[in-house]
Amino acid sequence: MINRTKGWGLCLLLGISLTCSAQGQEWTRFRGPNGQGISDARTIPVKWTEKDYNWKVKLPAGGHGSPVWVNGLLYCINRQGEILVLKAAPAYELLAVNPLGEKSQATPAVAGGKMYLRTYSHLISIRGRMQ
Question: Domain limits at 78?
Answer without folding.
Answer: 4-127
